Amino acid sequence: MTEEKVEVRRSARRRRTVTAYRDGDTTVVLIPATMTKAEERHWVAEMQKKLRRTENKRASPASASDEALLLRCTELSARYLDGAAQPASVRWVPPMRTRWASCTPMNRTIRVSERLREVPSWVLDYVLVHELAHLRVADHNDEFWALVHRYPKAERAIGYLEGLSAAANLGISGDADDTDPNPEE
């Protein structure tokens, strides 16, 4: 296992609080200048644990494998779509150029861009509900959107995806046309 890069920044203005964040592949820990080296070691270890816990909570368990993705779809279908949207397969695929995911209703297959492996679980859930809704309604019509909006964080997730796309200059919409009439990739 590679050792994590850590940068400790001491501040004379900081009196009691310790905070940390990730900056690329480096953990930055902000501590009071008056802390001893032993206290510094303690707080660096604590903040690394805290960041790992937060990151693990944030990532969806569905990001682990295609099987986990299919299981999550089954759960979401039962919760938001009356169990009526059952895909034949769901799989992670290399990053798509113009979509977050796609669905081929004829084959009942869903493909999810690996770009979404690191998004918060509620965003991935929205994308899965969106694709599952296509198994019931192929077009982006009012009936389709009524199904999608059964997911309570739909609007928030669309905004997140639009922000992610803009930040990475991808040009992908949170609600882009994602049905794939041609099942061949």
TrEMBL record:
Domain YgjP-like metallopeptidase, first and last residues per copy: 93-151
One Pfam match: YgjP-like
Source domain of life: Bacteria
Protein name: YgjP-like metallopeptidase domain-containing protein
CDD domains: M48_yhfN_like
Coiled-coil intervals, chain numbering: none
Record lineage: Bacteria, Bacillati, Actinomycetota, Actinomycetes, Pseudonocardiales
